[in-house]
Amino acid sequence: MDAHHYTNDGVSYSYFVQPNISGLVPRAGPVDGQTLVVVHGLGFSAGSDYRCKFGSRVVRAQLEGGGSNLTCLSPRVDAAATVSMEVSMNGQQYSSSGVPFAYHLREVVSSLSPSSGLTTGSTLVRVTGSNFEPSGAALCRFGSALTAATWVNSSEIQCVSAPLAAAAASASVLLEFGSASELAGLASLHSLSPSDDAVRSGSLFLTTSAETSETRSVVLAAPLLAGERFFDAELDVYVGGGNGGEGLSACVGDLPDAPFGELGAGDGLCVCFLTHAELLEVHYASRLMLRSRLARSRLRAGHALPLHLAYDESGLGVQLNGSWLPPPPG
Predict the structure, then answer these.
(1) Are residues 121 and 54 in the same domain?
(2) By residue range, what is the domain housing residue 205?
(3) What is the pLDDT of residue 285?
(4) pTM for this entry
């Protein structure tokens, strides 16, 4: 402090050569910002206060990849433009690489053609919308799976769908009981093969007028649903006016190979109409999620009752004939 005496605390000061940027991934992003940009180059490892500068806007950066690259989030800008991207090791001096980063309007997707495809993937999908920019890094995301996209023009890109398993997508299965042949590969009837005496006029009959005891059950053979975490299902369930049997079970998921093993549905979702006990029960992951007493008039209504089940982060919701059923106490 007096130009003669100095401290001897041993605090170090380091020197570094001016960094050089060799590339950016990606090289463009929307004007809204928040694009994670990976900066590749040389001379990054000796810094102390890392920054990225997009034109005149500065954001903090982090050293990654064992010192071989930096990452930063692009800042928001007012309009589409191309700016120079530079980095700083100490928050003051910046590189002079002049690598361009292009801001563009956010992409908008309006339609897909086709909008469905095989579970094995490999469907060529035409994506139409607006603000599509030519880029070698363009991607389509199917669920959690990424595939390369081909830019056609500002309103169209094309990509090939990923397999269902890679996308970790939810499967949708629609059963139309127009005839027994429509069940092939989707559902199986225990105690007999699908036949026109059980499937007719758009409905599935588990018993006939001559069979008042429970001798048949239906299991939805949907391996694509096995292991799914959440379910959303809609059923139109007809509970007849007779006195036979203990009711009806409707199950979704990975079920055991047993004639009447629906209650051992594992991680599957199982809805049980217990007509004799006048109860409706919902089981999920081998756990009773709901038990609600139903009036005999509802269980033996003699007509179809719409049933909607939803199981997600908020829990289980069951709606029967337009009325929400309460969960069991405790």
Answers:
(1) no
(2) 180-325
(3) 65
(4) 0.49
